[in-house]
Every structure is written in C-alpha cells, then in structure tokens.
Write a structure and sequence with these properties.
99 residues; mainly alpha; 2 domains; two-stranded antiparallel ribbon; 2 helices; 31% helix
Length: 99
C-alpha cells in the first residue's frame, strides 16, 4: 500500500503489549520499581508491524465488504474482487504468494 514508518521518520504509532516482561507491576511495596524498556533504535520493526497490520485491515475491509443499501435506497456495490485481482495481475502487482 506504500506506507512506511521507522524510527526517526516522524510518524507516530501507538502499540500495546501484554507480555509479562513489560507490564508495570503496581503491586509492589517499595517506592521504586524496575521494568524492561526497548531501546529507541529497536523501534523500527514495531513501526513496520503496525503499518503492515493497518494495511492488512484496509485490504480485508475492501475485499470482504458486501453490497450495502443505505438511506433513500442508495446502493453501494461490493468491490468486484475477481476484476480487481485480474487488474493487479495484469500490471504485475501480485506475486505468486498473493494469488
């Protein structure tokens, strides 16, 4: 889809993790706590993962949408998947793994 983000690109990406090693333990008794933090220069793979997940969500919404009828009978047809795939193949935008 063309999107790209990396450390230093100026893009903002919000990520969340449920991994136990990065959870903030609020049940400790002391006034300080230790936690693991990823170094700034290691962020690019996370930015790229967020971009790829967003691209996948966009493609899924386009290719899985069904024809809808809106207000006043307005029709919005679904994307003609086979026609789009043929166009992408014609212009070399699909690799064998995509087919």
């Amino acid at each position: 889809m063309g999107g790209f983000a990396s450390n230093g690109s100026g893009d903002y990406v919000i990520t969340f993790s449920t991994h136990p090693d990065v959870r903030i333990n609020t049940g400790t008794d002391g006034l300080t706590q230790d936690f693991t933090e990823l170094k700034n220069e290691a962020m690019t793979p996370l930015f790229l993962a967020a971009v790829e997940a967003t691209e996948e969500a966009i493609l899924n919404s386009l290719f899985m949408a069904e024809t809808m009828e809106g207000t006043r009978g307005r029709m919005m047809p679904s994307l003609p998947v086979e026609e789009v795939l043929n166009i992408l193949k014609k212009y070399g935008a699909l690799t064998p793994a995509d087919e």
